[in-house]
Amino acid sequence: MGREERGVVARGTRLNEAARTLVADHDRAVEAVRAALAPLHDAEVRRGLDAIPVARLQDVTEGRLRLGGVQDSGLRTVGAVLDAGPYRLRQIPGVGQRTVDQMLAAARRLADAVHETVAVHIDVDRPEPATTALVTALHVLVEAGDDTRRAVAGATTLAQRLDPLLADAAPAAGRWRMLLAGREKKARALAAVAGIRSLLEEAERERAAERFTQASVDLLREPDSDIAAWVDFELRSAEYYSLLAEISGRSPDAAAAQGFLPEEIAERVRSQDLDDTHRRVSLRGYQAFGARFALAQRKVILGDEMGLGKTIQAIAVLAHLAAEGQSHFMVVCPASVLVNWTREVESRSALRVSVLHGPDRQGAFADWKGRGGVAVTTFDALRGFPAPGGGEVGLLVVDEAHSVKNPKAKRSQAVALWAERCERALFMTGTPMENRVVEFRNLVAMLDPGVAESLDEGDARAGSVAFRKAVAPVYLRRNQDDVLTELPSLQQTDEWEELSASDEEAYREAVRAGNFMAMRRAAYLRPEKSAKLGRLREIVQEAGENGQKTVVFSYFRDVLGVVENALSTGTKDAPPVFGPLTGSVAATRRQQLVDDFSETPGPAVLLAQIQAAGVGLNMQAASTVVICEPQIKPTIEHQAVARAHRMGQVRPVHVHRLLATGGVDERLVRILREKTRLFDAYARRSSVAEATPDAVDVSDTELARRIVEEEQARLGL
Question: Which SMART domains does the entry mention (predicted)?
Fold first, then answer.
């Protein structure tokens, strides 16, 4: 009996040592990241302070400081003031001790603010020793993966449970110590041994010792080379930046990450559990909150801006419900992203995927009904499947849900019926409202008729704040600027071109005919003398000389054909051209085009129809975006740009909109500004917009008629 107890204590001690060794190895890896980050962060803080003019100190002190003498002395920035210190500041004529104290206190407050908000951006095109050290330190943890993260969490918990038990069981570790122990210590030791034995059995079932050992090995494995670490960073930058935010503690503002929901809803969401047993991807804080929101509120719209990982959040919800015992799930999406959804579910979770598409979709549906898993289908195919009974489907996911905003459309009616029959539904869209708030209300009505009915015209007239508060139970939106501190810059340039005489003649013919669509693409009708096409060639050439990939968007297939011909008949060293990717290209082929474009070393060009490629396809390989003409709906442009400027992008993104002066483009741009303002007020967070949506809205048909008439009048036609 004593020998068995001693064996249990010895095994418990070894397991505890293995757990603590793993925790220590992980702590060292984390500390290596912090040590590499510190000098980079300090340099960013310094740059930030050197960019703040000394006049800002007046703002901090509400105008109490007189800084004329300080500026005359050559101290132009807050950084210079801090460098000068109290002694030099006191030497400035007219500056007394009290002013010095106030000035330095204000400068330190600004320095603290900069220190808390500044983010380190890793420039993949200009690797330096300091950034290389950070990337290689992060690589160890990223490469170790989610299994190591779970192992560390398990080791931490196990050590916390074993420590007190081993302390109480100490007398049982030796024969004489047990004999000499008093009755109370002996009883406590026997109880502790029983507890250790239970933990050992649990650890053996989970193969904890092997997992701890493997995780320690993974944490000690360094990259094959600095180049290997940089290549991996470019491929998986989102994971690197996510880990960096977690380690640095510089997470996004909590209110922003929670979509500025009312506190009572946010608290309910925060208390929702989230099981990761079937998930193979780590979540950022705002993503975990989004998944919890869907679980806590049951039927919701996740309206995160493009590029924030709505698909991953949906997969987290699916994995949690699968862990709770749910067996059947349905994902409805456009045909263009069927392949992407299948890939994501397979790579990010342990769930089985069935594609219900094509001629054999009914057979695939029957197989899914029998075996379970995640079914992925299209809006049109969904209409051919019988709606489920109550409790039969654990979650209905509707991607690009703005596609079903028209309640009279058959696809919308099919989705509404499924949403009604499922206990949980997750609608995903970065564009929940394109023209009218009433369309957003239609989406809400499928999920919560009560909330939809409560949205009357008064909410719209009261402004966006009242509207957002009213829809908070079913709607969550976060914007990139609020939660992605590492996102590279986005530079948008309107490239205004004077139409050539040939362009002008083609445009006048389109106006005379009253053909709105011909007016929009007239600048490309005569390629040999097209001003827009000439500028497009220059942009692509410049991007290529800088080793960058370019994606060219147009609404019109024939414009893409003109662009393809112009770029393909250039010099022999012109970058390869892929596409055009249009609505007629099969879903699998679309994904293959994007993959080929992304995997091509060096410069390349992808041609894409904006309404086909602006949905669901990720194009982070491109850092230059060209939009051939302004679009009627601003959300179409936003979606297209977000295909490149999204989580995972490692380079600054430059967007060029090709615009012609004095015609349809100018009129469209003016209207687009109004529509963008409307969207920002009602679909994003805003506390200042007060305008009624219907005051600025016009239908696409009315817009076209109005522009044609205005242009005919302007040109005397």
Answer: DEXDc, HELICc
Q: The whole model's pTM is what?
A: 0.66
Note the helical H segments in 122-174: 129-168
Edge-to-edge strands of the sheet including 653-660?
A: 490-497, 653-660, 622-627, 549-554, 605-609, 577-581
CA distance 567 to 710: 35
What is the residue extent of each domain of the chain? 2-40+124-233, 45-117, 254-482, 489-714
To the nearest 10°, the Cα dihedral for 705, 710, 715, 717? 50
Strand partners, 551: 606, 625
Q: Identify residue 464 by its one-letter amino acid code.
A: S
Indicate the Cα dihedral angle 574, 575, 579, 580, nearest 10°. Answer: -50
Task: Please give the Cα distance from 476 to 173 (Å, whole number).
Answer: 56
Which residues does the chain have with pLDDT short of 70? Answer: 1, 59-68, 172-182, 250-252, 431-436, 456-465, 485-487, 489, 570-572, 613-617, 647-648, 674-700
How many other CB atoms are found less than 10 A from the CB of residue 445?
A: 17
Whether the CB-CB separation of 647 and 487 falls below 8 Å is answered with: yes
DSSP structural state of residue 401: G
Task: Domain 489-714: give its CATH superfamily.
Answer: P-loop containing nucleotide triphosphate hydrolases (3.40.50.300)
Q: Are 656 and 622 in contact (CB under 8 A)?
A: no
Q: State the DSSP string of 96-124.
A: -HHHHHHHHHHHHHHHHHHHHH------T
Q: Is 533 in contact with 524 (CB distance < 8 Å)?
A: yes
3-state secondary structure of 379: helix
pLDDT at 643: 78
Its CATH architecture, for the domain 254-482, is 3-Layer(aba) Sandwich (3.40)
**Does the domain formed by 45-117 have CATH 1.10.150.20?**
yes
Question: pLDDT for 238-296, tens place per residue?
Answer: 788 888 888 887 666 777 788 888 889 999 999 999 998 899 888 888 899 999 999 99
Domains 45-117 and 489-714 share a fold: no
